Amino acid sequence: KEGLAELGVDSLTLTITADSDNPIKKAATDYIKELWETTLPGLTVEEKFVTFKQRLEDTKNQNFEVAFVSWGGDYPEGSTFYGLFQSDSAYNYGKVNSPEFDAAYEKALTTDALDKDAGAADYKAAEQALYEG
């Protein structure tokens, strides 16, 4: 309610774009829609299903309100996920632009790459920059 009041509206409609050729995405999108509409009175969620190829184009071209994008890490290290949020990342569909995040992430990859504790602190600082940004 506070968010709607801040926007000066009584209701809001958002569209989630997801992959039509993935049954798991359909079920997950249905769940998100139900959860958001139940817990956020005044919100209506519309679902838009497109092929995986089309969703890739849509996210790349910023043609979405909310996009259901999944990512699986290919190795057990923070950069497999944090790299998505670098200002110049091709996968930064939300267009996050945080010099603080970029600096902490870059430090984890370079200066502190061989120091596990220092690298973990850098990733924590990067995460904090995302949270505060």
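[next item in queue]
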Amino acid sequence: MPKPKIHLIAAQTLNRVIGKDGGMPWHLPRDLQHFKQRTSGHTIIMGRKTFQSLKKPLPNRKNIVISHSGQPLHADVAVFPAISEALAFCCNDEKVFIIGGGSLYAATIDEADFLTITWIHTELLGDTFFPPIRPQDWQETHRSHFAADAKNAFALDFVDYQRR
């Protein structure tokens, strides 16, 4: 059976924070635009808490939620109790994006083929973290730097990694 390429996409601070109190502790329009550009037209897989923070499915994407209960959440969202079932459902997709949260990133980083990380040039307090990116596992393939500006309070780098 074919298997899609697994991309983890996340924004994280220098101390690996990705969330606080069910949301992101920053507002960075440049990162949101980057996320939209990368994921539009593709399948996105997320945990239940991430979906609840979004409040509705993201447009122009196949939305899949991992929820142990398997209970339906929205008419336009497929729900699976395990990531393995979600990936089997996506077997004909070229690629899928894991978009959070922390426990789903931790459960899939060892299976992932690519990482798309927005490094936010600050350290913040948080309660949800991205797993460590081990240099022996990942090769950086592209980096774009953006300074802070009137709409984006922090400088950031968009960094692509490929599994070694």
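[queue empty]
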